[in-house]
């Protein structure tokens, strides 16, 4: 009789423990889901310039890589010991991965500029992710690091785009010196003059190395780079500029 009684007690205890374990598991799972649901979203970061005391600036190039203009720009940057951030378009990246690889090997930074260079205004989060993710994967394959900087094509976005990009771990990068070199009517002298007149410590300058005839950009850099060097400026990537920030970003969106 004792073995039977022991078995019955043990079975009952085991059942109670199992039930208790199930309740605990449910509560833990429910708590985890609740924590995930109520976890605060990451802040939306929108950067136009960075407050720094040192004479450092970030030169950025959009719409490449281009087999005609990007190599010329890289050569000039290397000649003057400058670093820059290239916001690449996915369609160009898959066509010219060797150029993007050269950018990275030269110490440049690769940022995300969308796969088809589409404005994200009016897109829902799923459509935005479909535009952003393929470029992210290509850049990661080249550099071994996931990109964290995004430049909105045409500089256009809305609250949904900004929120979605933040949730994806991106900082949105604008600029405070616009060379307007996307206009073919702009001369190299005009582009250079704009940069040299408007640049200040912490500036982010926008150029283009693709999307059209950018020879005037290449020619303008032949004036800009030595002139900035003569004024004591150092050209760094956007990420390096952010690391040197002496205060909060000058512009942030929510």
Relevant terms:
single chain; 254 residues; alpha/beta; six-stranded parallel sheet; three-stranded parallel sheet; 48% helix; disordered N terminus
Written description of the protein model:
With about 250 residues, the chain is an alpha/beta fold. The protein has nine helices and nine strands. The chain has helices at about 1-40, 70-80, 90-95, 95-105, 125-145, 160-165, 190-200, 215-230, 240-245; strands at about 45, 55-60, 85-90, 110, 150, 170-175, 175-180, 205-210, 235. Strands 2, 3, 4, 7, 8 and 9 form a six-stranded parallel β-sheet that branches. Strands 1-6-5 form a three-stranded parallel β-sheet, covered by helices on one side. Helix 7 links the parallel strand 7 and strand 8 (about 205-210). Helix 2 (about 70-80) packs parallel to helix 8 (about 215-230) and helix 7 runs parallel beside helix 8. The protein is globular. About 40% of the residues are buried.
């Amino acid at each position: 009789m004792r073995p039977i009684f022991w078995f019955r007690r043990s079975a009952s205890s085991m059942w109670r423990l199992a039930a208790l374990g199930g309740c605990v598991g449910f509560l833990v799972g429910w708590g985890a889901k609740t924590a995930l649901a109520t976890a605060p979203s990451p802040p939306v970061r929108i950067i136009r310039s960075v407050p720094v005391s040192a004479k450092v600036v970030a030169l950025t190039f959009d719409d490449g890589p281009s087999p005609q203009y990007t190599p010329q720009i890289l050569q000039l940057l290397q000649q003057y010991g400058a670093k820059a951030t290239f916001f690449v378009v996915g369609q160009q990246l898959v066509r010219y991965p060797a150029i993007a690889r050269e950018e990275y090997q030269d110490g440049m930074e690769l940022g995300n500029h969308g796969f088809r260079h589409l404005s994200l205004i009016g897109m829902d989060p799923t459509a935005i992710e479909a535009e952003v993710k393929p470029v992210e994967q290509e850049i990661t394959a080249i550099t071994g690091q996931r990109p964290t900087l995004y430049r909105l094509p045409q500089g256009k976005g809305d609250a949904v785009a900004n929120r979605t990009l933040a949730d994806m771990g991106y900082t949105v990068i604008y600029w405070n010196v616009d060379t307007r070199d996307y206009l073919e009517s702009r001369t190299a002298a005009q582009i250079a003059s704009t940069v040299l007149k408007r640049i200040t410590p912490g500036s982010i300058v926008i150029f283009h190395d693709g999307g059209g005839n950018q020879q005037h950009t290449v020619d303008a850099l032949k004036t800009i780079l030595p002139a900035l060097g003569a004024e004591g400026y150092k050209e760094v990537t956007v990420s390096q500029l952010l690391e040197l920030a002496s205060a909060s970003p000058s512009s942030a969106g929510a």
